[in-house]
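Hi V.,

You were right to ask for the full record rather than a summary. Here it is.
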Amino acid sequence: ARSGDGLNWEKPILGKREYEGSKENNLVLVQGDPEAFIQHVLLDPDAPPERRYKGLIGSSGRKPVVSADGYVFTKLDVPPIPSQDESHLTYDEVRKQFIVTVKHRGPFGHSVYLSLSTDFEKWTDPGLIFHADAYDQLLGEERVREHLANPRLRTMTVNQPEHYNTEIYNMPVFPYEGLPNHFEASGHAPNRNQEGVHSVKLATSRGLRRWVKVGNRESFIPVLEIGGGAIDIGQVWAGSRPQIHGDELWFYYTG
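Predicted structure:
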């Protein structure tokens, strides 16, 4: 999808990738891997034309890809960045470096690890930079109980106080802050996965390694009440960085 103003979007017919016998669609293409899906595509203003667009592919581990037009991508012959099923990619225009945050296990469950690169090919080993702590567990229990008691919010399928837990599911990072996604779990669902609520909170850092949780650890982008066609009633995930519009920051998210 593409937009000239960030509000009104179109899905152009690209003709790049066949789906159900037709190329009349808006699917982008990774050469040599037609089933790949691309995440976190960004525009690198300092790159040569053939590498202006950059992104990552892979559901377990992340492999860098590049493109001249944002429609046809080429995989780079480099090792993948170790990751579980969550990641974010940002370019720091000041330090001229690429920032990838990935999900691995840490204290209290899923946590955020950092990998850096200046050329999009050689990446540092992911290192732990952000995780939930004991106070997050107390706040998470309180918020799960408040959620369960509020009939205007989406009903959770399970309530198992012995399995309440808060972990960090992912965290977009950009100059000058991070948007940690807190998963406050209410227990284990029948499919052995967890039930709970995702919401976006705030953290700041001067050097990417040490982070301060700000905003009283309240949700910056919370889930909404049921009704009015809202889709962001159970999960909220932030985009990799906000867009600057005049004197405003526009935060895009999925629900």
